[in-house]
Amino acid sequence: MIIIKLHDRFKTEILSYTQDGLGVAKIDGFAMFVSGGVVGDFLLVEVTKLNKTYGFAKIIEIIMPSKERVVPSCPAFYQCGGCSLMHLSYSEQCHAKYRQIYDALSRIGGIEAPIQFNPAYSQFRYRNKMVFPFDERYNWGFYKGKSHDVVPLNDCLLGDELNQKILNCVKLFFKTQKIPIYNEATHTGILRRVFTRVSAKTSNVMVVISANADRIKKTDVLVSELTKISDRISSVILNVNKEKNNLVLGNKNITLWGDSTLSDTLCGLDFEISPNSFFQVNHEQTELLYQQVLDYADIKKHDTVLDIYCGIGTISLACAKFAKKVVGVEIVPDAIENAKENANRNGIDNAEFFCAKAEDLVPKLLDDNIQPDIVILDPPRKGSDEKTLSAICEASPRKIVYVSCNPATLARDLKFLSAEYKVESVSGFDMFPNTTSVEMVVLMSK
Ligand code: SAH
Question: Which of 82, 101, 128, 201 is 20 to 30 A from 122 (CA-CA)?
């Protein structure tokens, strides 16, 4: 067995990827994670960090590149923490995501169901929401991986093309007015971040300036400059965040110009989105994902549907027109308020929403009130929990449709549910091309 030391160099091949998109090489059986490695690359690497059972290495030379290696479309790719797979061909990105799902389901869940993987139509410009921080020299960009150092950018290929002009305009204004950038360490300065959101329905853009202040001098000048950029800009909003925190936005919004909300549609339903509301980021893929949920659920008109972790009720409301009744459960009070407003706005009167922890409320609801025919769950990354899952099994719905953004916790929960339910189909969706995120929908039946 070779004894591996720090700074040792090895010639090696990349065999697979970690969940974070690092290349994995095996050196005498010892796993070495190589940033920027592509499966099939033959590399000279240098060990940069060693743990007991694995290590990290950097690429010194690409001896023979993989045929799936491509030149990243963004010049800042290797510095910026936003994307992690842009050096892979798109088909290789999809293959890596498919493997992530397949490996988790088989290793953790013991599940061998067929997986259908749905690539994205657009690999670029697919994000309807972007948040840009600034550095003290007024450069805008993104954070480096695992840090709050800003990597200056001229454009981000994941967002709308208009962002570039908006950000440059904000930069020029703050620089000219000598209004300082917010400093996290000292909690001084004013401009924290710029947040933009684009409507897929109208292509209107909401511009939100997040600041450590209730007012900013000469905002009439800022508004006048911003609105000259494009008639797509439909609102300019000052978001006040004077707290010492890392949140993207504070709670107070002052509309400097235009509308206070942005209208959009999703699955034929209308939504009014305020700066702080959650709304799915990849509109095109979300519609496909929700359609998959509806296809799997195959709701009949006498069915009661329980949608656990319902957020602002988008899935619940998409189900409502097919069902007798829909019940949504969600922990965030504002999201439940939004869900109720969204139901009213769309004239939906067969949806009921509850604000509670799923693990507390779902067992109670299922015990005395509700007999669901179909249960949909879409938990956060950490997955669901045994209290909720046991209650679902006991209520014995005809079908369970599980939506997940984390293959590992999905596999764990499916294994638990497998005592009573069988996995029928698994569908993977690439919601975030060029990043390692993957979304899945699973159909289980009794
Ligand atoms: N289905 C929604 C949102 C899914 S995101 C959509 O497609 O838009 C997961 C949601 O679970 C978030 O809204 C989060 O606030 C909520 N959540 C997290 N922990 C929860 C818990 N313990 N009980 C209920 N909801 C929870």
Answer: 101
Site of tokens 């010049």: 75
Instruction: Using the mean position of ligand 1's atoms as its centre, give its distance from the Cα of residue 335 in Å.
Output: 9
- Partners of 325 in the β-ladder: 304
| Confidence grade of residue 398 (pLDDT, cut at 50, 70, 90) | very high
* CA 347, chain centre distance (Å): 29
DSSP characters over 300-322? -TT-EEEEES-TTSHHHHHHHTT
First-to-last alpha carbon distance for the chain, in angstroms, is: 50
C-alpha 405/C-alpha 383 separation (Å) is 9
Alpha carbons within 13 A on the beta-carbon side of 28: 6
Judge if the beta carbon of residue 309 lies within 6 A of ligand 1. Answer: yes
Ligand 1, pocket-test mutation among 267, 276, 279, 309, most atoms within 8 A of CB: 309
pLDDT tens, position by position, 263-282: 999 999 999 898 988 899 99
Question: ∠ at Cα 18 (86, 406), nearest 5°?
Answer: 90
Cα of 444 vs centre of ligand 1, distance in Å, is 20
Residue 368 has pLDDT above 80, yes or no: no
The catalytic residue positions are 405
Instruction: Give the residue whose CA is nearest to atom 5 of ligand 1.
Output: 380
Helix axes 162-176, 219-229, angle to 10 degrees: 160
Task: Match 């013991």 to its residue by tokens.
Answer: 110
pTM, entire model: 0.93
Q: What is the pLDDT of residues 331-341, one digit of tens each?
A: 999 889 999 99
